[in-house]
Automatic annotation (TrEMBL):
Residues 3-121 form the NAD-dependent epimerase/dehydratase domain. It comes from marine sediment metagenome. InterPro entries: Epimerase_deHydtase (IPR001509), NAD(P)-bd_dom_sf (IPR036291). The lineage of its organism: unclassified sequences, metagenomes, ecological metagenomes. This is NAD-dependent epimerase/dehydratase domain-containing protein.
Length: 126
């Protein structure tokens, strides 16, 4: 399976790269620093700066991209970076997928380090 991963050099992404490589999958990582991808994710992983560099069909897309949120104060400049690295990037990814001739079978997108499970009987406040 050919997997396109954004956020592949991050905390979760690099672990997914190792896991999927061990399973024999082909990986492409869309990264702001594609030259670092092979060093961080593995020599077999291809890093691309632009989605248009991907010529072969993608079977699955996992979107985990986003600048870290907890390491600095949220200045106006920082908020713009956080927005761009998540929202703008996801919009570009979706536009690319719409233009793609071969649609992937699955798209998974996440933007957090936390997890909110089933609240069971607890209801959110109104």
């Amino acid at each position: 399976m050919h997997i396109l991963l954004t956020g592949g050099t991050g905390l979760i992404g690099r672990q997914l790269c190792r896991h999927w490589l061990a399973q024999g999958h082909r990986l492409t990582v869309w990264s702001r620093r594609p030259e670092d991808v092979a060093k961080i994710c593995g020599a077999q992983v291809r890093g691309v700066a632009r989605l248009e560099e991907i010529a072969e069909p993608v079977d699955a897309v996992v979107n985990l991209a986003g600048a870290p949120i907890a390491d600095r104060p949220w200045s106006h400049k920082r908020k713009k970076l956080l927005w761009s690295s998540r929202i703008t990037l996801t919009e570009a990814l979706l536009a690319w997928l719409e233009r793609s001739e071969h649609k992937p079978g699955v798209l998974i997108s996440g933007s957090a380090v936390g997890w909110y499970g089933d609240g069971g009987a607890h209801r959110p406040p109104k």
